[in-house]
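Posting for a labmate who doesn't have an account.
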Amino acid sequence: MSLFGKKPAAPAAPRTKAAPSHAPIAITGLGIACHSGDQPHNLIRSVIGQMSGVCLSEDHQIPSDDGSTVAMARMAPVAEYGDMPERERMYQLTTNALRNAAAQLPANIKPDSVLIVIMVSPEFVTRFNKIDTSHLENYLKAEIAGLETITFRIMPNNLSVGSSAFRSAISELNEGKWQAIIFGGADSLISLDKCLELDEDKRLNTVGKRDGLVPGEAAAFVVLQSTESATKSTTPVLAYLRGLGISVEPNARNADIEATDGLSNAINQAFTQAGIGATDIQGIVHNLGAETVQSLEWHHTTQAIWPRRVSEQQRLAVQNGEIEQAEIPDDPIPDIECPYQTMGEVGAAALPMQIATALAWIKYDAHQAKWGFPVRNHLLVCDTPDAPERGALIISTTLAAA
């Protein structure tokens, strides 16, 4: 007892200093499975070279409203899976990509300090009309050695809201809950049911209708570590995640009649975290190319972030031959690579595949630098799912200030 008749307070436990939620994250591994295979160099060559996996499917014929004509849907399947059912295709994609990513975990990291986050479509983890992720988890543990004691977090999300899930994983990593996180997603939209669903919404790309989605399939996973952990383990770093912004866009489906600023807000958040600006970005990965409203939203975004210095009158004058192209300033928007155009819509795997494309692009640049080509140090990844959420990531080759 103290002189005041009260029990003295116990000494406070030492407080561990948590890293700030926006601390840069080291990306130390990558695993993919898509139409171009499982190698990053094939992925980026496919995207840059527009080597599309899109084909016409005789098995997915969509009748017209009056039933008088039939149009074949465009699909982007992974050819090596042949006629496998949709669920088996998704399981195979997940296994192949996750196995490659897990093999790149540092040897000194204990399995029970690793978290695996997998985004999937709910239909693939529904059993007896209930969401049950245990079957996929047990399947992966049986197929991939070394995952027995690793914690899984399988996230069924119909809207493919990847940026929020990504931010949550990063926060846990910075808080020290895990030594490493494998983050990714897998999806397969190759089914007649999915095509009919998209067709009912007037959003399916078919013969005679090019403004619409092309169902595809893919899986991608990245290995994430704190920068401090990667440095201590001398793990090779593929790139650094330096900024992540998330905003809401309520007018995404109405970009033709409403202004949209959700994506530009997310991009500016990411710039602030990374300590860079619009002029520092040397490349963009964004799933453009599907629908008109998406292109209009992107137009609103670029006008806010990279305002064009060329008026419509100047553009028309160039088209009409009244002035030379050299007389007007260059468009300030950086190079854009669009994975969608070669592999179609990949649902829950969209954000991971875009991150994978950015990492493959960085690796491609490093190879090209041997012949004197410039290297892109800062890439922007834009996440624009069907949900109102908009995400923006800054992926850099260095932690140095821009």
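Reply:
Got it, the structure tokens are right above this. The chain has eleven helices and 14 strands.
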